[in-house]
Amino acid sequence: MPFSDGMKELLRTTDPTIIPFATALLGAEGIEAFAVDVHMSALAIVPQRLMVRERDLFLARAILRDNNVPVDD
């Protein structure tokens, strides 16, 4: 399992463009991210969440903030 060392929620959004953008930004920096609730959010009622390894959380938040992507604290 790729996230066996613990996952933390990085962001939550109903905007369908944010998760792919954030995932691409993180991937370019070598941070693996996993989107959850993707199929549940088809009507934009249930937000999608982006998860990262706990050890990557601090850097992932910094990367997204530097690119004006709102993150959960």
How would you characterize this protein structure?
- By secondary structure, the chain is of the alpha+beta class.
- It has one domain (7-66): UreE, C-terminal domain (Alpha-Beta Plaits, 2-Layer Sandwich), CATH 3.30.70.790.
- It is 29% helix and 23% strand.
- It contains two helices and three strands, in the order E-H-E-E-H.
- A three-stranded antiparallel beta sheet has the order 1-3-2, with helices on one face.
- The mean pLDDT is 86.
Fourth-tier CATH superfamily name: UreE, C-terminal domain
Question: What structural class do the secondary elements suggest?
Answer: alpha+beta
Radius of gyration: 11 Å
Overall mean pLDDT: 86
Q: Fraction of residues in helices? A: 25-40%
Shape: globular
First and last CA, distance? 26 Å
Main sheet? Answer: 3 strands, antiparallel
Classify the fold: give the CATH topology: Alpha-Beta Plaits
Number of domains: 1
**What is the count of β-strands?**
3
Quick take:
With 73 residues, this protein is of the alpha+beta class. It has 2 helices and 3 strands.
Give a topology summary.
Elements: E1 7-13, H1 18-28, E2 33-36, E3 48-53, H2 57-66
Features:
globular; 2 helices; 23% strand; alpha+beta; Alpha-Beta Plaits; 3 strands; three-stranded antiparallel beta sheet; 73 residues
